[in-house]
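To: structure subgroup
Subject: Chain for Friday's discussion

All,

I'm putting the inputs and outputs inline so they're searchable in the archive.
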Amino acid sequence: MLLDPLAMSSVELDNLNQLPDCSAIYFAIDSQNRILYIGQAVNLLTRWKNHHRIYQLQEINQDYPVRIAWQVCNNEELNEIELYLIKHFQPLLNRTQVKSPQIVPSELVFQNFLREFSRRLIIIGFKPQTSQELPHIHLKYDWTDCSPKGTAAKIKNFIQENNHINTSFKIRRKPWGRIRGPEDFQIGSRAQKALARQNRSYNNHWEMACNGVIISITPTDNYKQIKSITNFQKLAGVKMRTIPEHDFKRMSNQYPDDFADLSYFVDDLVPLLWIEG
C-alpha cells in the first residue's frame, strides 16, 4: 500500500520545533494539498533547523500555508524510499534550483533605521578606535515618553518589523538600569504599573555595528536640554542631531554621566561601501 502523505502526522512550517527527533521521510505540503518537496532525514528535528529549501517554503507559506508531514523509517531504507516517492509524486521543488534570499547590506538597514529615528536620537560623542576597540559612537534618546509612541517602543517595533530581513545588521539590546520606586508599592496598583512602564522605556541599551563602527543608544534624563543646543551632522550619510563643538565641553561638565570619556563628534565615521541601484 502506497504511503498517503495527506493522512500523516504533520506540523505547520511556523512550528518546526515541534518535529520529532527521529529518522523519517518528510513531505512539504501546502494548503492546496500540493506536495512541494520530499526528503529524508536521519534526525527530522535537526534537519529542519537549517533546511536549504526553507526560504522558498516560507515564501509559499505566506499565501498557501505549508505543513511538514512525515513517516518514520529505518535509516537503511531512507534512500530507497525517498527515490521511489519522488518518482511517484513528482513534487514541485525537488530537482529545481535552490532559491536564496537576497542579502541586504548592513549599511542600508542602518540608514533606514537612522532615517526613521533622526528626530528622536542625538549623537553626543564618540570613543576613538584603539588597538583593542573599534570606534564607538554614542547616541541618546528621551525615555520619558513611556507611551507606544515613545522612542523606546518605536525602536522595539522597528526591530520586530525588520527581523525577517536577510542581513548581517543586528540591533542587540541589554539592560541599562532600573528606576527604583518606593518599597511599599502594591502589586497591580496604578503606581506600580506606571513604574513598570517607565522601566520598559528606560531600561534599554541598544548596540549595533556597521562597517567597522559600533553604535550605542542609551537613555538620558536630559534629552530636552541637550536637544535645545544641537545642530546637524551626518552619520552613515543621514543627517542627525549632534552637539556643536563650542558647546561640547560645557555640556560634558553639566551632564558628566551622559558624556563620560567621550570626544566631540567631528566627522561621519561610518564608511559607505554600497550604492543602491
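Points worth raising on Friday:
The chain has nine helices and eleven strands.
The two ends are 55 Å apart (CA to CA).

D.
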